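Hi R.,

Here's the chain you asked about this morning:
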Amino acid sequence: MTSTTQERALVARWRGLLALHARTQCELDRTLGAHGLCASDFEVLDLLAGHRGPHGRAYRVQEISERVHLTQSALSRLIGRLEREGLVERGVCAEDRRGVRVALTPKGRALHTEVRPAQRAVLARMLTEGTG
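And the predicted structure, written out as tokens:
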């Protein structure tokens, strides 16, 4: 394979990944929208639902932004919306009073439990179809 052919194949593979991501994101938003969530909302809930660390079931906002690939600003707006809906709560970080921790509320945990199977089904379908 020539260098140009290799480059074309590499670019085609990259564009295929981008297209799969876009299709999956749209399908997730469509499915989760029936529950009042978007894909980013669910990612935050899912992260918080699975966390069992040194601080219980809470993450610092910085830790969340590193894992869900949102800017601090976008994440702050998202967390604010989830907090207004009663799905998460913010609290002061005990070890650094400037820091903020975010944790699921019982309502947030219940919604996550309800929606998780639908989200996982979309991932299974899209990633199986997309890679096949």
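Residues 69 and 75 are 9 Å apart (CA to CA).

Let me know if you need anything else.
M.
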